[in-house]
Known about the structure:
Layout: E1 3-9, H1 41-58, H2 79-84, E2 94-95, E3 99-100, H3 104-113, E4 125-132, E5 139-149, E6 155-161, H4 166-178, E7 193-199
Antiparallel strand pairs: 1-6, 1-7, 2-6, 3-6, 4-5
Helix pairs in contact: 1-4
Amino acid sequence: MPLRLMIEFDTAVHHGSGFGIAGVIDRAILRDENSMPYLAGSALKGKFRFAASRLLRAKGGQPCGPPGEPWCSGPTACLLCRIFGSPRRSGLAVFEDAYPAPPADAILRALNKNSRSPVLAGGSEVRSSTAIDRYSRRARSQHLFSTEVVPPLLAFESQIMGELNREEIDCLIASARLLDHFGGDSARGLGLCRCLVEVAG
């Protein structure tokens, strides 16, 4: 049964594409072919797996796999491997990409359509920062860079698909409560969020 995933951001968020726009932005956000920002389903799945492993450890369990433990093998698998998969098996949960929820999606489409810039789509902000030396804790000389962010107070929505049983659904719901940030530069205050997973009705 499909699960509905909602992510509400209290601060601006940078979910990077790994690329920049020469002469404009050093670190651009991830956008689709229509210039809409989105959160990759693979990144969401990774955040949920990490949260679920924290839950397992809090209950006295030990997740399989590195560091220190072998992966599940044979016909049975642990809860984490059933939901998220491992190098030995496919996971049951399929995380779809998360897109801006209404009414923000319509506003962003209008901003993209009416953007005056030939290279920079609308609906985002560009922030300048300096790299900080981790030893001296001072700004590094000639290390100014720009980061594209999606403005705060924006909600994204997605679905988690797959034939999941009650235990697996409960694990995903509990894991969502642990997620309080997403994306890069959380140490600089970006990506503070609240997550909710519920059965789609």
